[in-house]
Design a protein that fits this description.
GO biological process, one term: glutathione biosynthetic process
Catalytic activity: L-cysteine + L-glutamate + ATP = gamma-L-glutamyl-L-cysteine + ADP + phosphate + H(+)
Enzyme class: ligase
Oligomer: single chain
Keywords: ATP-binding, Glutathione biosynthesis, Ligase, Nucleotide-binding
Strand content: 5-15%
Distance between the termini: 27 Å
EC number: 6.3.2.2
Helix content: 40-55%
Largest sheet: 7 strands, antiparallel
CATH architecture: 2-Layer Sandwich
């Protein structure tokens, strides 16, 4: 444990400061709608759930059938999960015979032309979201748009940053906003250093439906007629089989400071990419992508973690970061846990809170290009071979076994868990570390190993296992229908969202071509990075 972490833990453990440990947690859970046989649903987004464009908690991601449930931000992850459970229960009350797919990797998929791109209505904003997704289909294929995950949104109290700044003495000319932004960037750098551990402990996609690859070359092994896998993989979703392409392969925004990060993304949304330029933005008079640049918009950048700021109407994400700094971080590498009805468990949330607070408080120097390559390689090894006996990773001192490094990490996390347990009362954070230790000692206890064991019980079929789990979760939610008050609350949200979309369509002015041009020309961040 570094001296900085020791000092910060002692400071925050004082009775006068312990209250600042309260931050906010939110979850975005993606899940495919499938029919009773486990095939992709062919129906549009259910109107009974409200407008996918304007509903604050129930929307769609890239595909029309890929639901996204968004919780409010809560001070305790236990409360967040209760809210997520409530969204699921309400959704099931409106889904009829359809099911929510229990896996990160998609069910058996139909032909590309039969996968519907998410539709958001005829307003200019709705069409912008739809055309952006057309561009994703063009660049990555529609099968990629059916991958689901858990996004964990995490913030610490602004009071915590003020306490640290006051105790450690921030530079006199640095604003509180700048200090907080740089602290979150430091958190992200540590996350990159150590996130391989999350993939070992929580990766849950070691197999996939053979229909997913669409004939692409691969080095997977065959488990059954409809299933491909890697025997020691933890998360094929986060491997090079996931949401990646050649254009993004050279894009590595530097997290050494906010200016550097936003400058890289600003360049990517303005830099033409020849293969996309050959496709053009329109085909047969129809928009097929918003631009021919490396990224259509900054959100296209696929990262395991992102700095974030709640955006205002008409504002772009980079604009929000430039003008008001980093407000929270979004962890994007978590697989859906197929053994949990809502896709994530409370112990997993407790571990993530411990891990992320550690990343925020631990020493975090700048990342060199060589460092970044090493972190990427550790992550890649873990997602494809994490349970391989004797697997070696590379820390700053050289080669080390995953198990040995993992145990060292748990020792460093232990005092952070103890601090959180004193704050919350009880011992749930320490218990989450103990569970992680058991997984390091016995890889068969990891979700990825449990998935493979369950697959074999279902004849090696990814589809059969996924359907069985989906049916099991559906039975749970349908037996716990929303209360009258809960139903009324979500009914009101649905009605209001539909009215809001209708009003947007009624008042939308100007043609779409001009709207896209104005959006692309909107001011991003043009500062020169002052860090490397």
């Amino acid at each position: 444990m570094s001296n900085l972490l020791t000092r910060r833990l002692a400071l925050l453990g004082q009775d006068t400061h312990r209250a600042v440990l309260t931050g906010l947690r939110g979850i975005e859970r993606e899940t495919l709608r499938v029919d009773a046989t486990g095939h992709l649903a062919s129906t549009p987004h259910p109107a009974a759930l409200g407008s996918a464009l304007t509903h604050p908690q129930i929307t769609t991601d890239y595909a029309e059938t890929l639901l996204e449930f968004i919780t409010p931000a809560e001070a305790d992850i236990a409360t967040t999960l209760v809210k997520l459970d409530g969204i699921h229960r309400y959704a099931y009350s409106k889904l009829g015979n359809e099911l929510l797919w229990s896996e990160s990797m998609p069910c058996q998929l139909p032909a590309e032309e039969d996968i519907a791109i998410a539709w958001y209505g005829s307003s200019n904003m709705g069409m912008l979201k739809h055309v952006y997704r057309r561009g994703l289909a063009l660049r990555y294929g529609k099968a990629m748009q059916c991958i689901a995950g858990i996004h964990y949104n995490y913030s610490l109290s602004e009071d915590l940053w003020r306490v640290l700044a006051g105790h450690e003495g921030k530079p006199a000319r640095q604003s509180a906003m700048a200090y907080q932004s740089e602290a979150y960037l430091a958190t992200i750098r540590n996350f990159r250093r150590y996130s391989w551990l999350l993939m070992y402990l929580f990766g849950a996609s070691p197999a996939l439906s053979s229909s997913f690859l669409r004939g692409r070359p691969h080095k997977l092994e065959r488990l059954s007629d409809d299933t491909l896998y890697l025997p020691y993989a933890t998360s094929l979703r986060m491997s090079d089989l996931g949401y990646q392409n050649d254009a993004q392969s050279g894009l590595s925004p530097r997290e050494n400071c906010l200016d550097s990060y936003v400058a890289a993304l600003t360049k990517a949304v303005n830099q033409p990419y020849e293969p996309y330029a050959k496709l053009g933005t329109k085909q047969n008079g129809q928009w097929v992508q918003l631009s021919t640049n490396v990224l259509q918009i900054e959100n296209e950048y696929y990262a395991t973690i992102r700095p974030k700021r709640v955006i205002r109407t008409g504002e772009r994400p980079i604009q929000a970061l430039c003008s008001r700094g980093v407000q929270y971080i979004e962890v994007r590498c978590m697989d859906v846990d197929p053994f949990e009805p809502v896709g994530i468990s409370l112990p997993t949330g407790r571990f993530l809170d411990t891990f992320l607070l550690f990343c925020a408080l631990e020493e975090s120097g700048p990342i060199s290009e060589q460092d970044g390559a090493r972190y990427t390689d550790n992550f890649a090894r873990t997602v494809k071979e994490g349970r391989r006996p004797g697997l070696m990773l590379n820390n700053s001192e050289g080669e080390i076994s995953l198990q040995q490094w993992g145990r060292q990490m748990l020792e460093r996390l232990a005092p952070v868990a103890a601090l959180l347990d004193r704050h919350h009362g009880g011992g749930e954070h320490a218990a989450a570390l103990a569970d992680a230790a058991r997984k390091l000692d016995d890889p068969d206890l990891t979700p990825s190993a449990r998935v493979l064991a369950a697959l074999r019980e279902h004849g090696g079929s990814f589809g059969a296992f996924g359907l069985a789990q989906s049916q099991k979760h559906a039975a749970y939610f349908r037996s716990h229908a929303p209360s009258a008050a809960e139903a009324a609350y979500f009914d009101q949200l649905a009605t209001a969202s539909l009215a809001e979309q209708a009003e947007m369509e009624r008042t939308s002015t100007g043609n779409f071509d001009d709207y896209v041009a104005a959006y692309r020309a909107s001011n991003l961040c043009h500062s020169t990075p002052d860090c490397d």
